[in-house]
Amino acid sequence: MSESQTSIELPVFDISQPLSPSSLSTLSLACKEWGFFHITNHGISKDLYKKLHSLSNSLFDLPSELKLKAGPSSNIKAYTPHFIASPFFESLRVSGPDFFASALCSAEVLFNQPNSEFSEILKEYGYKMTNLSRKIVEIVLMCLGDGFDKKYESEFRNCHGYLRIINYSPPVSQAEKEVEGLGMHTDMSCVTIVYQDEVGGLQVRSKEGKWMDINPCQATLVVNIGDLLQAWSNVKLRSSEHRVILRRSVNRFSLAFFWCFEDDKLIFAPDAVVGEGNLRVYKPFVCVDYLKFRENSEKGKFEKVGFTVKDFAGTGG
Ligand SMILES: O=C(O)CCC(=O)C(=O)O
Ligand SMILES: [Fe+2]
After folding, report:
1. Is the pLDDT of residue 248 over 50?
2. What residue stretches are annotated with the Fe2OG dioxygenase domain (predicted)?
3. CA separation, residue 69 to residues 62, 105, 106, 111 (Å)
4. In the structure, what pLDDT confidence band is assigned to residue 124 with cuts at 50, 70 and 90?
């Protein structure tokens, strides 16, 4: 796995300001070509990330038997242990809209006592991510056509979010130059907002199949388009394949916030989005059926996490 390393300089958008016409065309291009961009002025302080990182560390440092109390065979299923997504990946899921309750419940199970500091911080983070996701969907819809943000706002009204706190621990003695912390995949979201720490390792696959590094960029967050928006936009927005590579023997911390359609939403690209004379790339499908398809095709196959909405609802056209 030692390919020459190339990085991609993603455009950065100030999410606190209205987009200028030239920024809008840069954003449209980024969404079409890569499905990835950076945002800045997102309103989350360095201090909050520091706290989140250290609280998360205290959780991931717990013995495995304790962590499994919130694992896949528990009632809450919030903790994903090593060897599910990859041997080097573990994560804790915090679900919205009540991020406080979800974090409190996991902390109670894991630490044997409620941890209100942890829950308060996740409540704040979940709330901020929810607002950011709404703004991001708005600007991304603007890329599809003039006034499309207002026209299609209601389709996204029932979206919901969940957060994944991720700890990557590379092998102690690394014989290979790099290992996959998380294999190639696309996200099952409308949009995903990722915070990656300074270790780096997030990569996006170009249309030609080349892996490009998305280097950590001070005070910015990475945004990527997910499968649900790719399907809804008739592939005008790209949900691109990405993965995480571990190159150094240090742990990597990241937070991925997934903003998704409600489970029973019928995903069907609107006529105006498809455009006259164009064919629909996907058959209409119910959101939860796609989620189930992915769940069933990925279980235990961490070497090849690669199924997408094309495999599920593609018309072959
Ligand atoms: O850890 C990261 O930087 C990205 C994680 C990711 O792609 C995911 O959880 O879907
Ligand atoms: Fe992802």
Report:
1. yes
2. 159-262
3. 11, 11, 9, 10
4. very high
Cβ burial of 213 (10 Å; 0-12, 13-18, 19+) is: middle
Closest CA to 79 of 207, 165, 188, 195: 165
Test site for ligand 1: of 166, 245, 305, most ligand atoms within 8 A of the Cβ: 166
Say if CB 137 and CB 226 are below 8 A apart: no
Rounded alpha-carbon distances, angstroms, from residue 192 to 20, 21, 223, 289: 23, 24, 6, 20
> What are the tens digits of pLDDT across the range 269-311?
999 999 999 999 999 999 999 998 888 776 545 444 456 777 7
Point out the ligand nearest to the CA of residue 92.
1
CA distance 148 to 145: 5
The answer to whether the CB of 70 is under 6 A from ligand 1 is no
Q: Is the ipTM of this complex over 0.90?
A: yes
What is the residue type of 230?
Answer: Q
The side-by-side arrangement of strands in the sheet containing 36-40 is 12-14, 36-40, 220-225, 191-196, 252-260, 160-168, 89-95, 79-80
List the residue whose alpha carbon is closest to atom 2 of ligand 1.
Answer: 254
Nearest to 157 by CA among 55, 233, 259: 259
Model's pTM, two decimal places? 0.95
Locate the ligand 1 atom nearest the alpha carbon of residue 222 and give its number. Answer: 3
